[in-house]
Amino acid sequence: MTGLPRNSSRPRPTIPRAQRGLPQKRRIRDVSKTIAISSAKGGVGKSTLAANIALTFTRQGLRTGILDTDIFGPSIPTLLNLSDASEPRLSEKNTLIPLVNYGLKSMSMGYLLPSEKAPVAWRGLMVMKALQQLLHEVEWGGLDVLVLDLPPGTGDVQLTIGQQVELDGAVVVSTPQDVALKDAVRGVGMFEKMGVKVLGMVQNMSGFVCPGCGRRAEIFSPGGEGRVKGRCEELGVKYLGSVPLEETICEDADRGCPTVVAEELRGGQKQVTSYYEAIAREVAGQIGMNWQNS
Fold first, then answer.
1. How far is Cα 243 from Cα 276, in angstroms, rounded to an integer?
2. 151-160, pLDDT tens digit by residue?
3. Burial letters for 166-195: b for 16+ Cβ neighbours within 10 Å, e otherwise?
4. What is the Cα–Cα distance from 153 to 41, expressed in whole angstroms?
5. Could you give the 3-state DSSP secondary structure of residue 34?
6. Binning pLDDT at 50, 70 and 90, where does residue 19 land?
7. CA angle 195-197-198, nearest 5°?
8. What is the Cα–Cα distance from 266 to 261, expressed in whole angstroms?
């Protein structure tokens, strides 16, 4: 056995995409800026971070939407408390009208399923057809920024989006442990190969501060915040910041009220929101969006 084929040393093609039979990249209709939030590894809190970043944009007065591109495991309906919402209506143009909660427009495969428990047992062609509908048949009605919540991995969905959608950049999320970080590095490489600007990396579940004694513990690995930051330096990408391992983030997400909204409702100091604001501010600056200092 010779194993899997290795990368070819042949030069990359210089013929234009259209002449090679590849689709031309295009903007999503009625959207000024589009960013992708990816993880390459599942279970690192990417969707929770994507929802909170999108909600932070809305708090800046930006017309914002979030598109859940995870066909098999959509999370946005749960995060935005829309699991029991009615199926999206169709516009006069026969396009899907997004659902809205907390001032954020959203679209997800989860809204189109008969029930929350219904499985999506589809083969590739059906998945790609559904993805095309989500990408190009939604009536966003004019957005300043659209956040794409990508599924885990570096497969068909990620490649289709990277090759067909004009992205303003991508954010890669990882936890500090090597198992997640190695996949995150692969994710960075995937976007770079597709010519998508990597805006930076975020370290999620960065550390846990005991509410009793105040001691900080690095749950996943020693080295803490320096692990992802160090890898960013090696890769030449920006380190966007970190979000701690905080009990309320999980509780807020599970009850469909992301922390950016939940802390508003609770009043008092925005203990966790400040982390999301710092990351969103960095992203906004890189893609040319105005930011109002609060």
1. 7
2. 988 888 999 9
3. ebbbbbbbbbbbeebbebbbebbebbeeee
4. 6
5. strand
6. low
7. 125
8. 9
